[in-house]
Every structure is written in structure tokens, then in C-alpha cells.
Amino acid sequence: xxxxxFVGPSYEAPSIYQDAQECINFRPEIDPLKQPxxxxxxxxxxxxxxxxxxxxxxxxxxxxxxxxxxxxxxAVCQSDVYVIDSTFNPVHIGALNTSSGIVGITDNGIxxxxxxxxxxxxxxxSNPNNxxxxxxxxxxxxxxTLMKSGTIGINQQVFCDGILPQTxxxxxxxxxxxxxxxxxxxxxxxxxxxxxxxxxxAVVTxxxxxxxxxxTxxxxxxxxxxxTITGTGIALGTVITALGGTAALSFSITAAGTGYAVGDTIxxxxxxxxxxxxxxxxxxxxxxxxxxxxTINNGVYSIVPGTPSSTTxxxxxxxxxxxxxxxxxxxxxxxxxxxxTQTVSSTTVYALNFSVLPTNDGPxxxxxxxxxxxxxxxxxxxxxxxxxxxxxLSPISSxxxxxxxxxxxxxxxxxxxxxxxxxxMGEVSSEVWVNSGLFPFxxxxxxxxxxxxxxxxxxxxxxxxxxxxxxxxxxxGQAQVMMMNGYVPTRISTHAVxxxxxxxxxxxxxxxxxxxxxxxxxxxxxPTLDLTWAFDISTGMWHKWLWVDNQxxxxxxxxxxxxxxxGLNLVGDWENGNVYQLDALNYTDNGDEIRRLRRAPHLxxxxxxxxxxxxxxxxxxxxxxxxxxxxxxxxxxxxxGGSTWSNEHWSSIGVQGAYQNRAIWRRLGQSRDxxxxxxxxxxxxxxxxxxxxxxxxGVN
Length: 700
Prior knowledge:
The chain contains 1 helix and 58 strands. By secondary structure, the chain is mainly beta. It has 4 domains: about 130 residues, Jelly Rolls, CATH 2.60.120; about 60 residues; about 80 residues, Thrombin, subunit H (Beta Barrel); about 220 residues, 7 Propeller (Methylamine Dehydrogenase, Chain H), CATH 2.130.10.10. A 5-stranded antiparallel sheet has the order 1-51-57-53-54, with no helix packed on it. Strands 37, 38, 39, 40 and 41 form a 5-stranded antiparallel sheet that branches. The model has no long low-confidence stretch (mean pLDDT about 90).
């Protein structure tokens, strides 16, 4: 008989007795020019192999992002943050306060923004010059015993596991860039370790009074919002929150007004602003006049408001006006706003390119997911309905820049930006918000965009095609995979796919998408289930993409996260710190065997006996092994609906240059319900184009 569905679609029904088909590490390819019934309408191609590109550390690669412009790739492995350049050289630039779990990474062309659930971080995009060496620290003395690469210099930040944050090389000792001793700014004890350094963003001379940093001289670099500053006496975690020039450093009450209440909100209007200076009434005098205000956030204006500035309130009182004092710093000497109130006399100040954002930045501290829209960073607040945003073109958030997914009472779980709109994915519902230029929060809900589908796994959301896909949950159940069609979720999973997820823990699913050879594939892994599903949007078909251990046991694919960088599809390993290329010309997983399996449909003829004389599997010919030997295909079958299986039967695919070879098995016995299964493990381009079966029907 002609092709009996051996190379057809898989995973269409939930029971193996209804549909036992498997397609593991093969991806279906459709030829749209061939008519149904012809050989080769559907072919099975091998999934890409893994080719090592670099090694970051020894643990989970938690996230990767190609920075706008394509010059750098930012990757997180355990707690370490790396920048990878076009030569695939990883440079250590910072450290997170957590060491496991998927992280969210995005950028706005100026800053990279990272969230890990508990904290938010930012890196000013810059050339990550560094040195790598073996050394130890005792007190404030860094002793270098072996140089691996680069040159050590003053004004470099120092990184390794255990080193205190904001440690900077401040002076040369016996070392002049290589082996020797150096002075660092923070006293500590570190045993001999692999250590990295990275250049700081700026070195200046300055002092701090309250939240005002006054810079009197610049040794090198430029100051920006979002930079952590460190130096003698400066509180840990101090961050520059606003440049001068158009930033309000302080205020004075010009006219006290009457009728206000403690707690009333005051915003200074006038000018054009990215955020208005905002205060609350702290104290009221005997005559009802405002005598004290508490700063919520310093305003940032493109046009300085007139003096005195008019104010709006919570609805109480009249007549209150304020005079704002503005800074003068615009990257060099002048005055700036910092995050922490303190008093520091004149000292050398180091502005770091990598920063942990302080807890008083914006409405809340942590976030699980982050994205970018209209030069805003938008992020969620875990276990609440709330989400917030940064200021435009800045990693800094104002205190009132937040709102809530309030169309339904369920918590916000994840978010993604699509077509300049922010999709807020809740536990069992979703809604869409858009930038409307409002104050103090720029975004508002779009009416009519609420849906009855939430998201089951916060990291299962990934862009695909002209939209995005995710693992869904609603008030009626979970474990469907949906693709958003405008504002309407559309089911793309089949009953067979969903059956593997039913009554299982799927909250830890993580997804990514790759595009290769014209195919765009949504890949979703379930760590607890040890399973990876892949959906090809060009064919509308699913396949399993699995890694096999040395006991021939299947596990989820090695890819934990993905980025397209330097024209390559890269994935980070969930276990060992490796970054691989998805390589269509590599038929191994970084040298490990790939076990490719195709299980055919049931062959039933009214449950009468069938006698199977010959099975031919048509592989792409001429793909022999490099040593000249012939790769093999293994056949086995089941006669009881897929419950038990026969012994293995082997056949040659063909040696290199043999273009007429066929894999043939003969004298295959009889059955009332036969399922054939073929496995290929040799590292060759095992393309299955068709299968033909010679069989006769019996009479009983």
C-alpha cells in the first residue's frame, strides 16, 4: 500500500489505542505542491542539534537577551551576569542576589533591565572591558597570582562569588596590570578564586547632602540615572535617580495655603514633564496652613515650571504654591538626585554600570517578568494585581507609576508587549493596556480586551509569528496552549498534547521560540514533567523535542532559554552553563546521541488479520557516516495497541554516495492491530520522505 500515514501528523488524540503516533526529534515538513496520496506530501526532518559556543559557569543558564543593535548578548548563569560579544567571549559584568530560576531580561537601547522575582537590576550598555585572573583578598589588599586575560587597572569593579558588592580597585600596589597586589575599597576576606573585573561607568569627586549629590570634578566617564555609586562613606545601594538641569532637588513653600489635610497629595504642575514632583502634606499649622511636606518623588521636567508653581491636591485646600530648586548636573559636574538620604563629605565617587535597583525605586521592589514599550520598562509585582513602569528612556521608576489589572479579581501572573500594547496575563483572565500619556501612570486599559483565559505558567509566554503563545488556565481548567489572535486566545494544542499535561504540575513551564529554515517553532518545556513540546506554526503540527541520556531515557530538551545573536539561534542549558547554537548541520546534542523516533498510526482492517510482507522506509539517500560505514535504522512493532513491543530489527539506511538504497524489512508476521516504530540514532541527516507497506488482508 502507499504511504499509510507513517510521515503524517502526530499527537491528535489522547489515547494510544486511538492514536499511538509519536514524533520525537523529527519535525514534520509539508510540501504544498504535492497532492494528497503522493509520497513526500509530508516529510520528517531531524530537529537541530546542539553545537557549543561558550561556557558561562557550571549551573542553570537562567535567561539571555540580544541587546538592541546586536553587538552584545546579555546572559545570566546562576547569580552571574555576563555580556557575550561577537567572538562569543563571555565577560562577567555583575551579580544577582538570587542564583536559580528563570529571569526576565529586556533593554531600551540604553539600559538592560533584569528581574528575578525578588529584585530588579540594570546595566548601562557599554563596552565590557575586563580582566580575568586568579586572586585573593585580605582586608583591602587584592593579591593576583595568575593572569588569564586582560589588564587590571584602577577604577575597575571586581566580581566573583563571595566578593562584596560595589568592590572597586582604587590603587595599584606591586601590580601594574598583572600579577601583584592592588587596593580595593571594601575590606573583606576572599580565598583564592577566579576573579573578573569590569570598567566602571564614571569616576568623579563629589559629596552628598540629603539626596543631593554635588559633583565638583570628573576624572572619567559620564553619569546617568540608574547607576549605583560607591565611595568612602556612601551608603550601599545608593543610585543616581535623576540628572540635574530639569530634576527638582528640593522645594520651599512659597504660599502655605489653607484647608489641607495631612496625607493630601501635592503635584507640581507647569512645564512639560516625564514625572511631576509629588509630595504629601506632613504637618499643618495652627491656622490651617501647610507647614511641612514629604517628598514622594523628585520631578523631571523638560521645561522648568514657573516660580511659584501652581499645585493640584487630593481635593482639599487652596492657595498652596511651591518653589522648586533644580539641579545642574547633566553627566558631568553639577548636582544630582540620589536614592538614599545621607551626608558624605568630598570623596572619590565611582559610578557603576551594573546596579541593583534600590527598594525605594518606584512602587515596589521585585518583578518576575519585564518588557519594553515606547521606551518604558513595564514589569509586574509578584502575587498581586499590580504592574509598574519606569520613566521613559530610564531604568528609574517614580513612586506613583503603577496600576492594577482590575478587570477581574485574579492576580497578575505575567505580561508581554505586543503591537505596542501591554497584555496583562492573570491567573484566569487577561486584559490589554496601552500608553495614553497619562500622569502619574502613562497606561490605561483598552475597553473590550478582557478575555476568560489566564496563564498557567508565567514563563510559558513567548512571541511567535505575529503574536504570542502561552500555556493557559481559566476558571474551568488548565493545560491548553493558546496563541493570541488580536485580543482573542486561540487554542493550538491538541487533545494528545493536553493529555500529557492534565492533572500535572505545569506552573514551572518555560517557553521560547526559534526561527530556522523558514520554520518558526514555539518550544515549551515542563521541568517537573521532564518533557518538551514544540509547535511549528508553518505546519500547524506538534513534535516532541527531547534529550536522551546514556540509558536511552528521554528527558526535556537541554534548551532553557533562547536568543538570536550574530545570525545564530542560541540556547542556554538548564544544568551546566553551556550556551549552544541550534545547528541544523549537527546531528548530535553537543556530541551526545540524539534518539529520533517515529511511531506510525494503527493499521487495522475491520480487525481482520493482516499479513505484512515488506516495509520500506524511504530515507534521504547518500548520508552515510564519515567513516564510510552505513547508518542504521531500527524497527519494532506492537500487535496489542502499543502496550508491548517486539524485538529490535535493524536495516541499513545507506552509505555515502549510495543514492538508491532503501531501508527494507521483510517477513513481518501478522496482526489484527499493528503499530510500526522506527528509531535512528546515528548522527546523520535522517530525513524520512515516505514509507511503503506490502500487506494482505486475511479472512478472519
